[in-house]
Amino acid sequence: MWEFCCVGNTWSAVAHIITGVIGAGVLSLAWSVAQLGWIAGPLFIIIFAIITIISAFLLSDSYRFPHPVHGITRNPSYMDAVKVFLGRSALSTMGNRLNGSSARPTLIVKRLCFALLLVQMGAQYETWAIRKSNCYHKEGHDAPCEYGISLYMVLFGFVEIFMSFIPNFHNMAWVSLVAAIMSFTYSFIGLGLGIAKVIENGRIMGSITGVPASNIADKLWLVFQALGDIAFAYPYSIILLEIQDTLKSPPPENQTMKKASVISVFVTTFFYLCCGCFGYAAFGNDTPGNLLTGFGFYEPYWLVDFANACIVVHLVGGYQIYSQPIYCGADKWCMRRFPNSVFMNKSFKVKLPLLPAFHFNLFRLCFRSVYVISTTILAILFPYFNQVLGVLGALNFWPLIVYFPVEMYFVQKQVQAWTTQWILFRAFSFFCFFISLVGLIGSLEGIVSEKLS
To answer: Any idea which UniProt keywords this protein has (predicted)?
Structure first.
């Protein structure tokens, strides 16, 4: 079983994808469904699942150039594929159009943003959820149970320093397997608690139009934020080609990746629909932002504690999924830049008691440790960073998830302008651009409201 799961096949890819996609955000989707209502909420979850599948299919064909199966040039990262298919000018042109910089820093910044958010979430769930649950169990729900999280961010960062000694993506299958199991565990617990609450209520809460607002403008802001939350809960394009690079062939890597993507998105959508819909059915207009820490979910406290512990373990793996490409990119750059440096290239073998021998070099030790320490310090200094991440996610959703994959597909398949296929993909791209725009507006309004409240 271990060998089956840890080789570069469909199931190892599924584990990587689920680790990167199903985060603790699955527990906040009930809030999104509550803002959209019983029809639009589930519908948009399915729509974004379809968008993710289309994007994954287009991008997986970009792993080889010029042919998706027989091409001799491999693209082990997103930026490699863009450079090969569209040229270096496409990176700077698109980047300048979006952020005033090149697209390469955009990808690095997005991965850094995810790493920062995961540090915050790992500490938040370990303190604010587990300790608060225990406090309420002992003192009652009216007790002033508030705790600081800085110390736990430091502990989370220490664990990530240790995990960063994993050499590269090819050695991470076991991490993703454990993280995926954890995501299933806490998702099932959240689902079970939602079902139990519905049974306790004796009826299904909620309405077709969702949570009412005092005026149309306020309702639109909530709908925009909900669409943004759902849209950014799915995509994994920035790590897709790194995952595909771990796959063995035959069969062709793009076929395996497409199969893994379909399985992963189907599983993800099932959990998203179940947790989102049962959470809304349980709480209706009072649906909390997080099912596990919302009102009424502090009992049984031991089950909530276990679920939140599973979230922490999953976030440890998620941090590595988004950070490993940065580690590997730094390793490759330094090897090319300083090929004769002992500090950069010489490996040392270390054997600790009761543990297998492993290799490391001084550069990896220093760079990865400094990286983790930096993200931990930034997470402590900017405790409201998750609101800012919504803006960054909105800025990057359309270009990274849709624009580049579609443009690379046009080049690879030599799609002519104004053909039926060209028009359909342009319409698809425009729809996603619109979603990205409203998500950005909703995120900005959320930040302003947070600051003024």
So the answer is: Amino-acid transport, Auxin signaling pathway, Membrane, Symport, Transmembrane, Transmembrane helix, Transport
